[in-house]
């Protein structure tokens, strides 16, 4: 006997929260250690990508529909992740928005 949709919906929300919470905590630690707020951009983009992959693999439903729903999130997230590394934020360059916030605090 497998999980019903209601069971997965509750567990799915809980697991999604846990995945995103742990991932954003890791991004926050990177932000603090490197004094680079641009890690937030990577955290959001990759976090939604991880969640889309999670729901694609473990979600209930018809596979073509799951692919059509999850693929845009995955592709958009990968595009943002690529942009993060292309702009060189991982090398220490901090986006102006985050530098301003850091200076104002």
Question: Brief overview, please?
Answer:
The chain has 4 helices and no strands. The chain is an all-alpha fold and 105 residues long. The longest helix has 30 residues, at 5-34.
Commentary on this structure:
- The structure is a single chain.
- The chain is an all-alpha fold and 105 residues long.
- The chain has a domain at 27-93.
- It is built from 4 helices and no strands.
- The chain has helices spanning 5-34, 39-58, 63-86, 96-104.
- It is elongated and about 50 Å long.
- The chain starts with a helix and ends with a helix.
- The model has no long low-confidence stretch (mean pLDDT 81).
**How large is the share of residues in beta strands?**
under 5%
Number of discrete helical segments: 4
Q: Which sheet architecture does the biggest sheet show?
A: none
What is the general shape? Answer: elongated
- Gap between N and C termini: 54 Å
- Can you give the helix content as a percent range? over 70%
How many β-strand stretches? 0
**Could you name the ranges where pLDDT drops below 50 across 5 or more consecutive residues?**
none
Average pLDDT reading: 81
Computed CA radius of gyration, to the nearest angstrom: 17 Å
Supply the helix-strand structural class.
Answer: mainly alpha
Order of helices and strands: HHHH
What is the fold's blueprint, element by element?
Elements: H1 5-34, H2 39-58, H3 63-86, H4 96-104
Helix pairs in contact: 1-2, 2-3
